[in-house]
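Example 9 (inverse folding). The structure is encoded as follows.
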């Protein structure tokens, strides 16, 4: 009976498979981080939109007061408050912009991790293809050796029978 073949690059293949698993874990972590950053971005946009709405409400209130000729003190207060709201809106816009940069960085990290995973999978696929080819070659060699052994056995039996 033929012995079971031992693929010479089996250890290398195992290492490459582990690297693929690690790359999959890294990709999953990067995707989770991206989702977290996007959630934060949505929260920041909601806060900004709330401030924008507040600003537009106060502008409408100021216009109403101007149309109805209210006191100058009240109008001055409203204008001063609108300046404060405008500064707050600028701060919120900056937060949204900064968070968008974080999301972009996280997306680039996900893309890089995805490329790395593809490379590692390709390496494993190449080794697995090589292993299949090697196994076929090994089987052919085993058949040749088995055929030679049977030929030798046949000649020995023939020689023994012809001597008797």
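The amino acid assigned to each position is listed next.
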């Amino acid at each position: 009976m033929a012995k079971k073949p031992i693929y010479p690059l089996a250890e290398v293949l195992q290492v490459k498979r582990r690297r693929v698993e690690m790359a999959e874990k890294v990709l999953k972590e990067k995707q989770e981080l991206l989702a977290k950053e996007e959630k934060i971005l949505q929260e920041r946009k909601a806060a900004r939109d709330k401030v924008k709405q507040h600003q537009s409400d106060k502008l409408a209130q100021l216009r109403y007061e101007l149309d109805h000729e209210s006191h100058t003190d009240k109008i001055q207060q409203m204008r001063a408050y609108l300046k404060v709201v405008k500064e707050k809106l600028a701060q919120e816009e900056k937060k949204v912009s900064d968070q968008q940069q974080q999301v972009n960085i996280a997306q680039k990290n996900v893309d890089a991790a995805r490329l790395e995973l593809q490379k590692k999978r390709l390496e494993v696929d190449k080794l697995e293809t090589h292993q299949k080819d090697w196994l076929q070659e090994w089987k052919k060699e085993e058949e040749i050796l088995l055929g030679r052994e049977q030929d030798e056995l046949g000649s020995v039996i023939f020689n023994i029978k012809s001597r008797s």
